[in-house]
Amino acid sequence: MSFYDLYSQYKDVDTAFHLISSKDVEKAFQAQKPSIDHFLSLLSPAAYSYLEEMAARAREITLRYFGKTIQLYTPLYLSNYCDNACAYCGFNAANSIERRKLSINEVEEEARAIARTGLKHILILTGESREMSPVSYIKECVRILKKYFTSISVEIYALTEAEYGDLTAEGVDGLAIYQEVYDEDLYKKMHPAGPKSDYKFRLDSPERGARAGMRNVNIGVLLGLDDWRREAFWLGLHTDYLQDLFPGVELSVSLPRVRPHAGSFTPAHEVDDRAMVQIITALRIFSPRLGISMSTRERSDFRENLIAIGLTRMSAGSSTRVGGHAIGLNEETAPAQFQIQDTRSVGEIKAMLEAKGYQPVFKDWMRI
Fold first, then answer.
1. Could you tell me the CATH number of the domain that includes residue 171?
2. Are 325 and 114 in contact (CB under 8 A)?
3. Interior angle at CA 112, CA 111 and CA 114, nearest 5
4. Could you give the CA distance from residue 280 to residue 232 in angstroms, rounded to a whole number?
5. pTM for the complete prediction?
6. What's the alpha-carbon Rg for the chain, to the nearest Å?
7. Which positions ≥6 away from 116 have C-beta within 8 Å?
8. Domain-embedded: residue 194
9. pLDDT digits over 69-106, tens only?
10. Residue 21 lies in a domain
11. Measured between alpha carbons, how far is 349 from 36 in angstroms, rounded to an integer?
12. How far is CA 281 from the centre of its chain?
């Protein structure tokens, strides 16, 4: 059974959410091995009044499986050329912004600047243009970056299994690819043109990456595009499916909320801080070994408050501009993909974690 088949079985979850009682919620967060039905209960409106109990349970699980550690990484934008018309993205092909791709020498300059912070994990990103950022260019960049970093992940356009295999052979060990929104009809509206409009090809990308040898696979939804309960449920369902299929792959999720960017998109659904807490605690209780990442899209105080209840990874010293770490492009003509809220440096994030009694992890993987 493909994940699309599984998703189709659970398309109508709204009615189920509203049939859940307080007793169902209590059974769910006390279960030793929570089921999919338990996960549904933890995301339901009935669970909203149990957030403190869920947070306590999530905190205990996180400490048991991950200890007091947080892995740090930063994004490196290689290019903002894009062929898609995603309604919510600053790199939308229709937006009038300066388009830029780093030269190989500029990639090394960015790498040196990031490496000086002590970070050893990096996430490289491009806009989704095969012509301007072909796999061959990404491989060239990886050859430079692996001189400076022990772990390299990619967040780029969806590839074939063979192409993912080419990247793993070059030294890439992680894949981040977000479905953005699981609701198939809404997905089509949010992605009206460009290669990303192929819903099923996007949906199956994590599997292709895992089969091609990616050590870490990170998936996610862009919260605010649709009802957060439905989307969080399908995200959890997807991680459960992938964990069963690839037990040797380290799976993680990201939970970005829509942030301001070039263009005029306004999210249709509010996702407040309490909703974020419910999503994170529900995911942690349902999937104890799941990595949970929180980017600098979120406020610094909010990210700090989430550390104890489920986070395992945080970005630091981030920039969502091409050349944002060292090249210093004009911020007026080369805008960010989206605005960040936590602007602290790597050193400041490290100091915050240590003050809380946590170990900031700069390196947990060695390429042989």
1. 3.20.20.70
2. yes
3. 65
4. 9
5. 0.93
6. 20
7. none
8. yes
9. 999 999 999 998 999 989 888 787 778 788 889 999 99
10. no
11. 35
12. 17
